[in-house]
Amino acid sequence: MCAETALSAFQALGRGGGPEVFAEEARVRMERKDSSPSVAAARGAASTILALFVALGFAARGECGSVGPVNFSGNLDLVGVNRTGQISTNSLNFGENPFHTTRIRLFADAPIQDHVHVFTEFLYDDDAMFARLFGGFVRLSDPKGRDVHLEVGKIPLHLGAYPNRSYAPKNNLIGAPLMYQYHTDARNDQVPTRGEDIVANRGQGYRSSYVGPGLTGVGYDFGWAMPVLYENCWDFGAAVIGTASPLEFAVGVTNGTAGAPLMSDYNDGKQVLARIGFVPAPWVRAGVSGSRGPYLMSSLNEDLPPGHTADDYMQMVAGADLELSYAHGVLYSEFLFNRFNSPFVGNLDLRAWYVEGKWTVLPGWYVAARFDRMIFSDVALASGGVEGWDADLWKREIGIGFKPSARLVAKLVHQESRINVSPAVVRAFAAAQLSVVF
What is the mean pLDDT of residues 120-133? Predict the structure, then answer.
């Protein structure tokens, strides 16, 4: 009966059922992308089935008595914005946006064996293309009780620190840092052959294309413009996470990259990622992260330089994070360096950072602010000279919050962003959010 219970829970996950209750660590998500070859899909399915059998094999010699009821929970986020036409800097894939009026997350945590759980998450955004399975994975915990776990499936992104507080009940503000959501003009389905091809798309994000009139790029139109760390979905893969005080660690392998999370793979490479954290005292937490994996679609192989395939061109990320607390205040900060290898125009580099603070002024009441920045390197132009391959930008968000309990928080924020094209694109608006945990 234990195996039957586990299989039933896993099948429910495959149909799209629920959510996540991996509390504060498994907070990151990633997105399924279409246009993946059927062979990759079959390979992903086989890997999932194998992972399930491995999970059952490790933990299933135990008793059925530890199998408990499925725990359901959720978040309801309600948002009002005074200028809805100004929120596009925060746009996510599938038309989602944290400033949309109604967003619902449903979570399920199903213990299916001793030391084996299934976690799933389902997301609805009322202005998005569709509701979707946000993530779902099997989690194996060390039978000896040590804080070491193996996650297999559509798993969180274990890079950086913001994912641990990205959901509305834990986010001090409403928006996310640029490094976790902003779409650059680098694409995974097209490549520029001249610097002019990518420079012409500065600040365009989703609308970037290197194959338009007057441009000489090559590729197709079934991929997307790349963020750096895409926090809004989960990737398919496996990761080992845990703590060994004062250290915390995560290491994993995924189909997609930090900026292009996937279910079925679209090339023959895998991403390797890792984070190590240091918590020497309750008031300080620091960490470093890194990842490396091919980001281009294999459909581009015939358009690439002779002797090269999509697997030769990497997205590489290196970052650091810091959290400090003192009295009624908390300070968060992250910095990262990202590189997209591009076949014809060289490396596309960027740096991004943010600083965020929160101060509790009265019991239940706080003020918060975040300032972040993204700066792009230069690319050589065929006509001579150099220019930034995308437009530098900054974003700041300030707000006040009232949190009478862990299940209820209300926020009022003002956000302004500036994209340095000519003329500059400045967006500013105010928003209110009510977030309820149920």
Answer: 92
